Structure prediction request, 469 residues.
Amino acid sequence: MDPLRMADLSPRKKRPRQTGASMASPSQDVKFQDLVIFILEKKMGRSRRAFLMELARSKGFRVESELSDSVTHIVAENNSDSDVLEWLQAQNIKASAQLELLDVCWLIECMGAGKPVEVTGKHQLVVRKDYSASANPEPQKTPPLAVKKISPYACQRRTTLNNCNHIFTDAFEVLAENYEFRENEGSCLAFMRAASVLKSLPFTIISMKDTENIPCLEDKVKYIIEEIIEDGECSEVKAVLNDERYQSFKLFTSVFGVGLKTAEKWFRMGFRTLSKIRSDKTLKFTQMQKAGFLYYEDLVSRVTREEAEAVSVLVKEAVGAFLPDAFVTMTGGFRRGKKTGHDVDFLITSPGITEEEDQQILLKVINLWERKRVDSGKASQQEGKTWKAIRVDLVMCPYERRAFALLGWTGSRQFERDLRRYATHERKMVLDNHALYDKTKRMFLKAESEEEIFAHLGLDYIEPWERNA
Prediction:
């Protein structure tokens, strides 16, 4: 039985609650020295306050566990201006004109931006004045945060690299990967979609109330969110990370050319380390797996944007030697604005080239690089090498299909999956990396650009850097 479903059927075992002071991480670097925050526990609750304190500290904010003269900003939730001022009076503390009394929405916006945001009227609990002159100044109401309706499709959401909910999405991605290793597609997709929708949110989830009206959050997903909110971690994720099967599959599939079937085979044979696999004389490796082992350390390290740009120069030079009028475009995560990646993808096309010539061009480029590799001695040189092996994916497509190929190879994977799902279920169309077919009109729809494909689908255009779903 699905372990998450088993957890759903059993009563929750609550852990002892921790105070904000005990959860503090004094070793975390403070990025914003001039700003000192105190979060009011009144009407907020101890566990939510502790969670917010830890989250703010992880973002580089200085958060005090106790109210002191150094505090510059007091953050409250579900409190009016008079509530906070009365609380301060009860503590025998006089509020100065320099002390900001703010609604929690200001802190949430700071978390999303990763830095302090400008305080505006909607953040303030009171109009700025000398608070010590009156305990009951004229209140200024804080408007509620308006959350737009969120689409269940990633292709209708703008998702940048600014993820406000890492604490949840990181957990979901571990669980999704574990289900993928176990070939449980349904549960894998459930957690991938949940991670995707939370990545698009412009605010940090701090209570279960924040999850209301958010799509793609099934009961087992909400269970994980609630546990993380209350305990700061997920017991299921901890169990997965310590699971021998998950660890082995994670290790084996990190080798270039190794998929789930091979990982399953090695695991059943009793292997748990790569060194034992490498030294086993009975195993036969594919050409890709041999390269994966040979250049393992290089290929598991992240490719930087600088390295990707250097590779781009080499690709354009090599393709240009055989196809001077070719268009070479870097796709994948780097086109979406990522600073690092596992590999570098390129789309190559040229007016007038036929599909039969595609493979010939790729073979010529690869043979050119192979000759240069041998001539430079990199074919055998490993000791003290000054170069790095990088995985490069070259994709050639007919010129008239370049828009579809560019859209498909830009990603992200969840964005592309939802784009095709939307086309099928909402528009009665079929979309892939080559074409868009309208089943109602029984015809292929032409497109010269990505914008035209979005228009055919009746979607607002989403920029590549907003497709990080």
Notes: Confidence is low (pLDDT under 50) at residues 1-27, 127-146. The domain at 403-466 is CATH 3.30.210.10 (Beta Polymerase; domain 3).
